[in-house]
Amino acid sequence: MLILVARPDKHTVKSISYTFALVFLVLAMPLKKKTQPGAWLDHLVERAPIYSLQVDSVQRWMEDLRHMTEVECMCVLQAKPIGVEEDGQQGELIVTSGVGAGDHVARNNLQTLLRRALVVSTELGKMFQRLEKGRWQRVHSTAVRANCHVRSLVHEYGAARSTPPEMQKYEKSLLEKCMELTNITERCLHTDDEFFLKSMREAIHEILTDVSDSFSNMIDMALANEIRLLIKQIDSSDSVHTIGSAISNLLSLTQDGPQLCSIIAKEGAVVALFKICRQDRFRELYAHALRTVASICCVEEGINQLDKVDGILCLADILTDESSVEAARAEAAAVVAQITSPHHTSTQHLASFLESMHDIVTALIKLCESASCGEVFLLASAALANITFFDSMACEILLQLNAIHILLQACRDRQRVDTPYSKDQVVTILANLSVLEQCASEVLQDQGIERLLLLLGEKPSSGSPSEGAACERVQQKAAVTLARLSREPDVAQTAIQLKAVPRLIELCRSPTERNNSDSVLVACLAALRRLAAGCPDSIEAADHQQLIKPRLVDSFLLCSNMEESFV
Length: 567
Hints:
Inscuteable; mainly alpha; 3 strands; cytoskeletal anchor activity; INSC_LBD_sf; globular; 2% strand; INSC spindle orientation adaptor protein
């Protein structure tokens, strides 16, 4: 239950009291069965002075009030700013929990620190905006609030933890600058001199920038201190519960952005987590620890730490260990997918990866085959898709392991491949395998052309932008795969028999079919031209004149500017 405690002024009290008295009398009075809309107020005015109460009206009011919304009261509440701090300014609305304020005190220090930091950052952001607009009263009130929040944060953190000496210097400097900011903004309230205010605006902007930088540095140091304590728990404790709790806190922190992931990596979290993953007594924590590692490795510092502790060898051991539970192997696959992502600029860690690549690829394709759900398949296939980008040897290994048959079979299983994201990984692997000559025969053998044509028709089931983008990638890569495989006459003939040409033409001519994607258009034009080269009679003269005969860029411009016909 959420309790809203307001601090109204005397006029608000009078208004609310009148409204509640009105509600009280209305609820206490029985109305006629057939009351016309709007007539209840007249009925109240006529009957209220002479009506004698027959029920406990206070009790009735208390029972019914929870179901009512009084417009005037709501307007009063909405006009009050909501503050999340218990030491809010006069006139603010205080939010507390129905279970009592003690829960806030008992909260984890990390969450409290992040919550306080968010409040201060929000106030500083508001101050920048109001300073630009010259709203001096608001600038000063925001400076006062920010000053209070910073002092409260420093006090609370100092009470909960022994503050490191280097952090104390930042605290002192920050508090002095906050006080200076409050004083200088107060001076701007008592003058209308434009020249003075302009000079003050520049000075305040400079001080505010210093405050923001100092505050960020102080928070980073405080977070690093808290993270060190969590890592110490992981390193020194023998309790599964204690270690699991510390890992959960680290995982929660990684969700707050790459900056925190960098701090976590620099403090040695990856080293501590792999230490856990190398001890059999902590097997039940493997999945949890590896999920945290995958999150940390979204930044280069995390990948560098993983490389230093031979984390890839540990991942290979978990993936190839048949006694490892599926959840642990799936999270190991997630780490592989993360560190092999094409988005990373550093590739030094891939040298050690190549040494274990055969074992890892073998384990991943087996995981795709045995996956019990879509999430496990997605993680394993995403890792394989990334691996096929940076080494052709991986593609050869996959062909030897009958990967095409396994992946195409998975596409027929809704339990494993149930989203455009999973299909995106599958078609990415097929597109990268299709550069190998022996791939075509295996695709034909497993009815892969039929599957590619189905993928060309992939459409989002919702209005989600990410799902729409995934469908575009599926269509594009399916067309690329078809174009590459169609260099083989047997594949081209099969594709034509399965009516690939009409579908490709539809994608070229209809922007909505390809979700207005230029990349899908280019891929479909390339596939059409490859099919036309092998079987010229498969395309009608008008389509040949517009889509095949001109230069590729001219056909692209024609189709990208084409208005869809609804005739």
